[in-house]
Amino acid sequence: MKPIEFIRTKVFNQTQASFAKLAGVAQGTVSKWEAGNLAPSQDEMQRIRSAAIRSALQWNGENWQDEWFFVTPKGASAGKKMSP
């Protein structure tokens, strides 16, 4: 699982369309991120990060980690979801 897909599905628990709205991009852009054909810009990552922090989102008991943009945590594909 790509890091951005982990963030969308495990941390935010959102569809590509709703995650795109949060990031201020088109759904097709999120699809390209997840396919590895495009990387989020710094502004887009900042919007995602701000939304996660503002919402106090966690994954597996951990608060938001900026490294999640670059490295998918171990166990991320095990079906664990975020917790508010």
From TrEMBL:
Residues 15-48 form the HTH cro/C1-type domain. One of its GO terms (molecular function) is DNA binding. This is HTH cro/C1-type domain-containing protein. InterPro entries: Cro/C1-type_HTH, Lambda_DNA-bd_dom_sf. It comes from Agrobacterium tumefaciens.
